[in-house]
Specification:
2 copies of one chain form a homodimer. Chain A is of the alpha+beta class. Chain A has 2 domains: 112 residues, Protein Yojf, Chain: A; 109 residues, 3-Layer(aba) Sandwich (Trna Endonuclease, Chain: A, domain 1), CATH 3.40.1350. In chain A, the strands form 2 sheets. In chain A, strands 1, 2, 3, 4, 5, 6, 7 and 8 form an 8-stranded antiparallel beta sheet that branches. In chain A, strand 3 and strand 4 form a beta hairpin. The longest helix of chain A has 16 residues. The first copy, chain A, is elongated and about 80 Å long. The structure holds a DNA duplex.
Amino acid sequence: METYAYLESPEPQEAARFVNTYKRRGIVVVYGLCEVSYEGRAAARLEPMYRLIIIKRDGTLLVHESEKREPRIWNPPPSSNVALVIDGTLVIKSVRSRPLETVIVRIPIVSFAAFFPASSAPYRVHGTEKDMVRFLASNVGLIEEGATLVGVEVPTAVGSVDLLLRGMGGELIVVEVKRDLAGPEAVHQLKRYVEFFASKGEKVRGVLASPDISASAYKYLKEYGLEYRRLSPKQVFTA
Amino acid sequence: METYAYLESPEPQEAARFVNTYKRRGIVVVYGLCEVSYEGRAAARLEPMYRLIIIKRDGTLLVHESEKREPRIWNPPPSSNVALVIDGTLVIKSVRSRPLETVIVRIPIVSFAAFFPASSAPYRVHGTEKDMVRFLASNVGLIEEGATLVGVEVPTAVGSVDLLLRGMGGELIVVEVKRDLAGPEAVHQLKRYVEFFASKGEKVRGVLASPDISASAYKYLKEYGLEYRRLSPKQVFTA
DNA sequence: GTTTGAATATCGTTC
DNA sequence: GAACGATGTTCAAAC
């Protein structure tokens, strides 16, 4: 396997060649004093400061400061990143085509540059909303004793219903699932589905299933005559 | 200013000391063969592979692969990150308290470890939704000829209205602003506000202002008797 | 290619 | 500290 490589305090020309050589092979890291400008969907500008710049082989560009999970400036893949020397300073230019977004990193002092071979692999996260829906589809009793499954991700004119059941009284039960604290938006979403089926002349109830619900969301829920079932992703994950 | 530091193929003990020494001072980068597990709001596990691990002084932990803007595994600030040696291998353990989330990175082969002094500074992005709202508040004519400003970010029982105007006919005009393509959710949001004021006995119209609108969103808009004004952040940014 | 909605969303602001 | 909504959201699945 190819090994890593690095340069200490390289000349701009040398640094540019290094970046261009390795940028398509793995992860390139550049550390130095830089000023950054971004223009695209919005615009921003960062004053000169020492930062960490990361270039990935798929065209990702990240400019990280010493705090926060998020890069301060970035270009998502697929972007076109090129290193060049302008007026004796290293410049990394990143262009995303659609939408057109440009990031320009001027690095008057390049302290360190490194290349790290790395790869990427498929993975899976457990405990997503999809997992919860799947679980509930096989355990509809958790929502309503004696109910039967009508469908999962059922498309309607006002959006896709997470779970659709039929209760013992013959009524439709629309279920909206959230994997986290449910807010007002979730209740309004559920209300739309219920109103849709009601307008079709169906007898229908609405149930919100989530690990928790905010006070204001609960107020709406009651106001609209909807129901709540507490259910956490943990229950799903361990099932 | 403190300078950078690095280790090549360090012993686990040495690497652990390095990480713990520098983790609160700036950005620490570790490159090596690692397997990663995460458990918290959800759960995931990454098989052994060469990856880039980043630790920031605010407790951020990022595990990056060679593609995508997003880290594969992470813990956001403020988390508590500690390096230790278990059974002769470097382990970085990250714990976030609320909610409780744990990331464990086992690194049997540490190829490279580096510390980069860096800082963090306030910054500003231009062309946000807030910018658009501010601009429209000073140029209500772009929404409705002859209208007057009633308020900005006006709180209601169903949420906060971006912009509230009064038309020449004495009617209220509720304006929902989006800085990007408006989808169905934006239309439903607007509809809620309009219904709220209508229920108060107000004569009211609803206007959605955005650079573009999806086909299905437009269908809802028309169906609900709402209006559309095309307006891009660029117009704001250059104003 | 476009649209749609989830996300371990993260993050700032407000209450 | 909780909650609410924007984000240059990003991302993947559905169409």
